[in-house]
Specification:
With 441 residues, the chain is of the alpha/beta class. The protein has 19 helices and 13 strands. Specifically methylates the cytosine at position 967 (m5C967) of 16S rRNA.
């Protein structure tokens, strides 16, 4: 199959079936696309259709429901119609071309019997666009382009800031770089970017961060293959400095994949005794690739952080970075498929897992040591409520984040830890809590 619209529909349908993520499905789909002229236009269109349809799916679903006379049972057909509606609503593709190509995509999906339905629905959407917008404008799912449960959760947590968060989540994210300060300075690398014709500016908080004016292929970045720079959001870049590793310390990066924070720690202190732990072997391959590109090393452990008795040698760590598995609701602008993959019932399950891992990691931390708890979530159940409960139940745990906020005014102070919000702060949504373990008397 060499039809980007048909492949996009197949990807979107699999997301609804919970059979993967854009990160895993797109490479599969891109392998089936042929660009004879070498321009890459078909792959770019496939990517745009997948990301854009996922980003606005909650809104497009409501439009499709208004236009359909009955429930569409074929999941690929429903997904194709969402792809078609996305083109009409959000792209510069001429309307007649978008409709015609989407009808042809139905044939590519062996849905020839439904071409009339596809054509009729999309033409009806075009004719009644203004009326549909008026009719649906009072629906919070339509106005926010977030599923109802998530829209309500964000509004409950952040009140008047919710609208700004929704807007940020619905925009394309910037491309942010982390300069390897062990190899060159940020200003030096900024000069290299300028010489390569790539406009960029320094990040506000991360001393290693640069934001590009427009995204580029990593192959265009000077010295990328030699480890001079990595791609990482500004909020994620704060983890290394917050953990503050010292020379020769024994450090654990729990839930380490894909390895951005692991590499940053070694850029800050190359002589660390660092272990990178993750439960997924294929994701650890990414950690190894990143370490090799930067020319640094770490002990790789494939195991469950929640059950250290199966892999821990009994020697405690000076510092632990726990980037806990979470809902990823702070990085929706980078991963819009979260809107399709996450459910309200996932949150208490994730919170329970986070609590289990946090308690397990605490046993591995030396007295006087530091544990940095982090998530890319913006939901309090996974963040401030999680850490506040842990500190209340753990006599030798102290939340040192308030002192940190006095030194570096990053984010919003919480009952425990601090929160960064998309649209409110410069980077993605992230949560950090710096916990200290009491020294033995």
């Amino acid at each position: 199959m060499n039809d980007p619209r048909a492949l996009a529909a197949r990807v979107i349908a699999r997301l609804y079936q919970d059979r993967g993520s854009l990160q895993r499905l797109l490479p599969w789909a891109e392998k089936q696309i042929d660009d004879p002229d070498g321009s890459g236009k078909n792959r770019a269109l496939l990517r745009e259709l997948c990301y854009g349809t996922a980003r606005f799916a909650p809104r497009l679903e409501l439009i499709l429901d208004k236009l359909s006379k009955k429930t569409i049972k074929d999941e690929e057909l429903a997904a194709l119609m969402l792809v078609g509606l996305y083109q009409l609503e959000y792209t510069r593709i001429p309307d007649h071309a978008a409709i015609g190509a989407t009808v042809e995509a139905a044939r590519a999906l062996k849905l020839g019997h439904a071409t009339g339905v596809v054509n009729g629905v999309l033409r009806n959407a075009l004719r009644n666009k203004e009326a549909l917008t008026r009719k649906l404008s009072g629906n919070p799912q339509f106005s926010s382009a977030h599923p109802e449960w998530l829209q309500q959760a964000i509004k409950a947590a952040w009140g008047t800031e919710a609208r700004t968060i929704f807007t940020a989540n619905n925009t394309n994210p910037p491309m942010t770089l982390r300069v390897n300060l062990s190899r060159n300075s940020r200003d030096e690398y900024l000069g290299q970017l300028e010489a390569a014709g790539i406009p960029a500016q320094a990040c506000e908080w991360s001393q290693a961060g640069l934001v590009l004016e427009s995204p580029v292929a990593v192959s265009r970045l000077p010295g990328f293959e030699d480890g001079l720079v990595s791609v990482q959001d500004q909020s994620a870049q704060l983890a290394g400095p917050l953990l503050d590793p010292q020379p020769d310390e024994k450090i654990l990066d729990a839930c380490a994949a894909p390895g951005g924070k692991t590499c940053h720690l070694l850029e800050l202190q190359p002589d660390l005794d660092l272990s990178a732990l993750d439960i997924e072997e294929d994701r650890l391959d990414r950690v190894i690739e990143n370490l090799e590109r930067l020319g640094v090393g770490a002990q790789i452990i494939c195991a469950d952080a929640a059950e250290p008795e199966h892999w821990w040698d009994g020697e405690q760590f000076d510092r632990i970075l726990l980037d806990a598995p979470c809902s990823a609701t702070g990085v929706i602008r980078r991963n819009p498929d979260i809107k399709l993959l996450r459910r309200a019932e996932d949150i208490p399950e994730l919170a329970a897992l986070q609590g289990k891992i946090l308690r397990a990691m605490w046993r591995l931390l030396k007295p006087g040591g530091t544990l940095l708890y982090a998530t890319c979530s913006i939901l309090p159940e996974e963040n401030s409520a999680q850490v506040a409960r842990f500190v209340a139940e753990t006599p030798d745990a102290r939340d040192n984040t308030p002192q940190l906020l006095n030194e570096q005014p990053w984010g919003l102070p919480q009952d425990a830890g601090m929160q960064l919000l998309p649209g409110i702060h410069a980077g993605d949504g992230f949560y950090y809590a710096k916990l200290e373990k009491a020294k033995n008397n």
